[in-house]
Amino acid sequence: MIQTLADMRRDYTRDGLSEANAPAEPFGLFRQWFTEATKTEQAPVEPNAMSLATVDSDGRPHCRILLLKALDDRGFTFFTNYDSAKGEQLNASPYAAMTFFWPTLERQVRIEGRVEKVTQEESDAYFQVRPLGSRLGAWASPQSQVIRDRAELERLLAETEQRFLDTAPHCPPHWGGYRLLPERMEFWQGRPSRLHDRLDYRLIANSWQRERLAP
User: Fold this and answer.
1) Which CATH number covers residue 42?
2) Residues 6-53: pLDDT tens digits?
């Protein structure tokens, strides 16, 4: 098994990333790469899937896959249960890191920064465009809490369906969005022989500084 893992490798030959083709600020490059990923990546890959890393009050890291749901010049927005494990961790330490990986394009983007809650209006607006099942699930699931079995979850969902039988579910008070305000963004393009391209953007005194990192 160990030898088999050691032999697993591929050479990255699709593209390169040069300073001449990269803007002075990172949002334009991210939008370009994300647009290309939506046109290139095939199911089951979701181009807006990302890993989100947080730290708890004991300094222990936690990581999971989420979906990016909004992007503007302020930052990157995702939605979750505020009482979940990740919500508690962000309350204890409001900093996080996300990573996007687009294997077909041989690209990765790492983003680090402070996290803040979005406005209630933003959470309400996104909640209303979610499928009905997802809105009911946000009310039914005590996210990250221990439950006895699947039957308990289905019972909670059935009770929620009865509660909203005659009215559309509104956004729960324990559910909403977070926006990561980037302070650092690194763009990684796979290259042959593991000599990858890495352009690193850091926000210093409200200005983006770009540097090349060794692979």
Assistant:
1) 2.30.110.10
2) 888 888 988 999 999 899 999 999 999 999 999 998 877 899 999 999
For residue 160, tell me if it sits in a domain: no
Residue 206 CA: distances (Å) to CA of 22, 49, 75, 133: 19, 28, 14, 42
Out of 114, 163, 194, 212, which one is annotated catalytic?
194
| Residue 69 among known ligand-binding residues | yes
Domain count within the chain: 1
Q: Could you tell me how far CA 56 lies from the centroid of its own chain?
A: 18
d(CA 99, CA 74): 17
Residue 139: name the closest of 112, 119, 158 by CA.
158
Whether 194 is catalytic: yes
The neighbouring-strand residues paired with 187 are: 109, 199
- Domain for residue 4, yes or no? no
Is 162 a known ligand-binding residue? no
Q: Check the annotation: does 150 bind a ligand.
A: no
Does residue 138 lie within any of the structural domains? no
196 found inside a domain: yes
Name beta bridge partners: 51. Answer: 65, 99
Q: Which residue type occupies 125?
A: A
Question: Under DSSP, is residue 134 helix (H, G, I), strand (E, B) or coil?
Answer: helix
Domain range for 119: 10-130+170-210
39 labeled binding residue: no
Per-residue pLDDT tens over the stretch 156-200: 999 999 999 999 999 999 999 999 999 999 999 999 999 999 999
